[in-house]
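Hey, I was hoping to borrow your eyes for a little while. I've dropped the whole record in just underneath, so have a look:

——
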Amino acid sequence: MLELHHHFAMALRNCTLHRRCTLLVYFGALVLSLTSASAAAQAASAQRLRVVGGLASVSQYTRHEEPFWNQELARLSGGKYSASIVPFNQAGVPGPEMLNLMKLGVVPFGTALLSQISNDHAELGAPDLAGLNADMPSLRRVVSVFRPYLESTLRERHDVELLAIYVYPAQVVFCKQQMKHLTDLAGRRIRVSGAAQADFVRALNGTPVFTEFSELMSNMNSGNTDCAITGAMSGNTLGLHRVTSSIYTMPINWGLAIFGANKDAWNALPTELKTLLRRELPKLEAAVWTESARETSEGVACNTGAAACTPDRRGAMVEARPSAEDQQRGREIFATKVLAKWLQRCGSLCAQVWTQTVGPATGIKAPAQ
């Protein structure tokens, strides 16, 4: 606890932006309160890690992150090392600030959604821009070529060691009213989770409504939103199949997340523990990717009433698959609208990043600014 107090005090002395300092005061106090309950355990074992995980209730967290940190780490190390984990959206930590809190050491080990941290660091959103990756193989290729840049940027500019990249199932469109084609989104209010999704929606003459995942259902029930872009299975878990009638299965994007460690926290770990994590976290990452691919199709099946789903998860939605014309329209929106808007948000840096990483892999050149 004394070490955590020290990290928090140093972070406050080093911060300069009023908004960020205010957040640090709040979230430093929050993290300290969360860890106070396990102070006795930490005193008994100096190698009990504190981890902030991804979204609560979805499979990435419940089936993979939580079991790995709460049980598997201790088993793999013969009880020598252990960890506790809490999902960021239940801990009250705002997703857009996760990278900053990791850099400052307030969160020593954390999971950050690229769609959220790219609000402040637009260049990091390059591999999962809305309309870029029409399928999982495309996403894998793009992430592969972008990963070296992501690793070096997080280490050199943010003092964060990249340990894994996770992916959520395809982000598809749930609508209350019938939807068959992209053009049907015109005039509708649509839940989005990031700037690139908003750009995609605006290109279709829809109105983007920025909504946190935890607030999605209440927003839909309030009548404030007509449609929602979210994961096929995560939407089912929330209960969207009970309040919407149509699911349009074009992957708008996927939802990438990074798992990383504050540089000082990582360097302070015993070599044995770092070796173990370097060996096991790629396996965790691979399991998350495999499940995300599976859940994309299973989510659609459950929402449309597949008998294999449990009754409470079985919907009666109508699936609308993208036509060849819609697929072409999606590519055009990405190349002419989404990519251009992304470049406008961070200028020459994003143009350079695109030209050196994703652009050559996809054959899409950055438009002149």
In short: The two ends are 50 Å apart (CA to CA). The CA atoms of residues 191 and 228 lie 4 Å apart. The longest strand covers residues 160-167. DSSP finds 16 helices and eleven strands in the chain.
